[in-house]
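ok so i was messing around last nite and threw this chain in just to see what happens. nothing serious, just curious
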Amino acid sequence: MCLFGVPYHSDFGEIFDADSFISSLANDVKIIRQVPDRNGKTPSPYKMRVPRKCTPKCYENRVLPALLKKHVVQLTKFDYRVSNRLETDLQKLRCRVNYHALKFTDPILEMGRLLVQRMRAKSGRFIALHLRFEPDMLAFSGCYFGGGEIERRELGAIRKRWDTLHESNPDRERRHGKCPLTPEEVGFMLRALGFGKDVHLYVASGDVYGGEETLAPLKALFPNFHSKETLSSKEELAPFLPFSSRMAALDYVVCDDSDVFVTNNNGNMARMLAGRRRYFGHKRTIRPNSKKLSSLFLNRTSMSWDTFASKVQMYQKGFMGEPNEIKPGKGEFHEHPMDCICARTKRRTGPSKPYLSNRAREAAGNHTSDAEFDWSDLDYGENTPLGGDSSTETDPDYGRIAGPDIPELEDILSD
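result:
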């Protein structure tokens, strides 16, 4: 969870309840707090890097011999390098670790729950967005976001600092779905999916590249815009502020408790949250289909809003967090911990309901034709059909009907 450029880091015990972790796994794994002395000295661990797709046999052939010889081994770059193809009992142990043994410390939990309470007090239900638009993320992606030579120079300097400067093709990265959506694009996607400007949006993020100028379009599309900084005082955040991992942990607590979680990247935090929300009874997680949406956003001004929104709904089929969206054995384990989830019958059968209620569609009929919608004049929802007529309740979508597998908006918010 550490963010680039933040000077302070946190040890395990400053983020997680170490006593609870050790006791929870006592029957499975022997865990010690520090390496015992040998001949009056604490041995330095032998460091080794595990291949990214190391299989169980790989661990037996490479890691075990080193452990037997050196006695203490430190596996570096280890956070996501455990194979998805493990025996069921070992996968269940991973679930026990991820969803039961790992608990945040009391100060983090208490502050996180306070943020959730304040969100509930404002709206009852809310969306949480893991925006992930910090400079380190953008630099690592190798993508281009329209900032001209200044952006290329700034992000290029970060890549060089990491010794990861490489020949990249931003257009190719975008076509392959490797680029996070901009805040503006995330806002358009959510409005096209039927979330109106009255929805309360919690944004989990570090320092966004471009600052307020970058966030302005998203805030205009969703005026009820919140973050840990807006929901709390400087005094309340002071114990967490110097530590990026603890700040990220606060966001994690709020995102976990949200009615709908929207992830803008496929990183570890997003995957862990998606898996946790599936494991504990299923709460919806929406993932942008970046590969298909990228071309749509590049050409959005050449089509009407209705056409654009219809295409977004079509492309998002299979990315809306349905319980059976991923077949067993497919997908990354942290995001789809199917070995640990008991099979259940579907809650509802038959075709999905319309996106909006009959009353909403009737009100939407008062809008002008979508052909009159001019993207070039868009002011992010204040004076255009996208923002909606104040006399209606259906600003974003003119009463469209969803595709056969896209759920109704009321169902999304009530899952």
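not much to say yet. The chain has two domains: 17-101, 106-133+180-414.
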